[in-house]
Amino acid sequence: MVLYRKFRPQKLSDLTGQEIIAKTLLSQLENGNVGHGYLFYGPKGTGKTSTARILAKAVNCTANRLTTNAKRKKEGSVRRSTLNVRHFSEPCNKCLSCLSIMDGSNLDLIEIDAASNRNIDDIRDLREKIKLSPVLGRFKIYIIDEVHMLTKEASNALLKTLEEPPAHAIFILCTTEVSKIPATIISRVQKFNFKRATISDLTKVIEKIAKVESIKIESGLARLIAEASDGSYRDAISLFDQLSSNKKEVEEADVKSIVKSGGWEELARFVENLAQKKLKDIILQIEEVASLGADVSFFAKQLVIFLEKILFIKIGIKDELFSDYASEQIEKLVFLSKQFDLDKLQSLIRLILVAEGEIKLYPLPQIPLVLAVCKYCGEPQDNSRQAKVTDPSIKSDNHQVLSEQIDIAIENKVSGFGSNIGKTKSSNGQKVIEIKSLSDIEKHWTEFLARVKNVNAHVVALLRSTRPTHFDGDNLTLEVFYRFHKDKLAEPRIIKMLDATFSEIVGSQVKLKFVLAQKGTKPTQSVRASDVIEINDEDIEKIAMEVFSK
After folding, report:
1. Do 217 and 103 share a structural domain?
2. Which of 193, 209, 226 is the last residue of a domain?
3. In 3D, which of 273, 28, 74, 55 has the Cα closest to residue 172?
4. Cβ atoms within 10 A of the Cβ of 351, count?
5. Sequence-ordered list of residues with C-beta below 8 angstroms from that of 428, at least 6 positions apart, any chain
6. Is the Cα dihedral 160, 162, 168, 174 positive or negative?
7. Is residue 65 a contact partner of residue 88, using CB atoms and an 8 Å limit?
8. What CATH number does the domain containing 448 carry?
9. Number of H helices, E strands in the chain
10. Which GO terms describe its cellular component (predicted)?
11. Rounded to 10 degrees, what is the CA torsion of 113, 116, 118, 124?
């Protein structure tokens, strides 16, 4: 038998790290206040299913019930009928009921995997069978694991049974994602939150098992295994079982060959390189983790937790959340905290979090982490606007940024126009075109579009759906065939740019005016293939946002 099953808790007092839950359930058992529905939720491997089985044993324990009744008889109960009131305690683990639950043969304990029995038909079948009386014990206990996997219809079918179950039925729902469970179900059960195991608790469990199994483990290695277990008792014991499967001794080389990443010293070295922005050393360390076959996603999670501790120190939290750390580790964290600015530390944590979420999308899992640290180490040291635009960790309004970039281009164009009035050539050396009538404008319309394209390429596509209809020397009226195009071209920033461009052509100030074409008027000819503007893929999003921004 594997170690995590062999050393599975068999009594509430055996639960490690969940003392409050154990005390509450034991109090309910002793007072006879056992509920009809429970919800055990929390991270994987924290004892939810084990606690459910202990509770099932306690309420059906034969020796427990007989002992309690005999004791109450001796003390002189008020009347004989009170002997049937539910009063329990810890299971004896020796009676037929307890032993059958432990070996999985008890007919009154029904365990349902909601991941594979999630449909409404499965719940309907449960509702029909729940009416049958228990076979051996006083209660039928239904343990529904990963209950959040039930479909919406199945959850609704379960509601009525949860609210008013038969007197002989107890429901224990277990899940790792309580947020996905409907509030209507949560309101019908007692809720118990199973917390992630601390490093010290996991270390004690490993050392205890090592002592019982006569397995020699070097000092500090139990803690290293605990750190790599992500707060899961099951993962910690399974990892220890793997390390000790071939021999009765666990050495440092064995642990490093399995754990491969996530060690405290390795994380400290990585973060110190980040603080000093030693990009080469950081990349080599990431590649080393990946080449060893380690879980890069787990390494990123451990890195976020490590950086979080540094963040806590930066904001003045030390004693409350560092009970698991040795004094030299706390000193190292304090040292590292002094090498980060608070804003940059928050930015780094965001980048690593984003990278961790993208790891599963890449064929090489280390790539998102490499890109994240390159982004952090390569960011400018000043607070220029370019840094604010390119840093994804800084929340910015893309519409506003693009508008600012357009305004800068317009200002440059206007300033160029101011120096060209009355001259025969523009600032870029192009000759000023003499425009006297509407026919002159039509002759040089292509030239006007070319100059607009130099300032704002996408506006050219809108102008191709217009037609000059009137020019009096100071004002140019353009007929637009689509209201949407008219509204976009009439925006103040677009008008300002077009006025400046056209005025540069004629050598004097000219105002453009857009009017909507009358119904029945034919629109301009279709856009030719030669008119299509070549746009790179990376520019499509920016141009679209610029067109549709208000």
Report:
1. no
2. 193
3. 55
4. 22
5. 416
6. positive
7. yes
8. 3.30.300.180
9. 26, 10
10. DNA polymerase III complex
11. -80
Are 220 and 243 contacting, i.e. CB atoms less than 8 angstroms apart? no
Q: What is the mean pLDDT of residues 54-82?
A: 63
Residue that finishes a domain, picked among 207, 237, 259: 259
CATH code of the domain containing 239: 1.10.8.60
CA distance 394 to 396: 6
Same-domain pairing of 78 and 141: yes
Low-confidence winner among 24-28, 85-89, 177-181, 511-515 (lowest mean pLDDT): 85-89
Tens-place pLDDT, residues 315-331: 887 766 666 666 777 88
pLDDT of residue 39: 95
Contact 39, 226 (CB under 8 A): no
Cα 365 from Cα 215, distance rounded (Å): 35
Do 251 and 370 fall into the same domain?
A: no
- Please give the biggest Cα pair distance in the chain: 120
Phi/psi at 285 (5° precision): -70, -40
CATH number of the domain bearing residue 286: 1.20.272.10
Check whether residue 361 and residue 441 sit in a common domain.
no
Say what the pLDDT of residue 495 is: 81
Which residue reads 């105002």 in tokens?
511
pTM of the shown model: 0.57
d(CA 379, CA 354): 17
For 43, the token pair is: 């991270």
Average the pLDDT over 389-399 and give the result. 44
Check pLDDT > 90 for residue 446: no
Alpha helices in 296-444 (DSSP H): 296-314, 327-337, 342-358, 366-377, 385-390, 398-418, 438-443
Residues 426 and 493 reside in one and the same domain: yes
- The domain of 433 spans 399-548
Q: Which range, of 305-314, 318-327, 410-419, 488-497, averages the lowest pLDDT?
A: 410-419
127 half-sphere exposure, CB direction, 13 A CA radius: 17
Tokens read off for 236: 């910690």
**217 or 460: which leads in pLDDT:** 217
441 pLDDT more than 50: yes
Q: Going by DSSP bridges, is the β-strand pair 109-113/140-145 parallel, antiparallel, or unpaired?
A: parallel
pLDDT at 190: 93
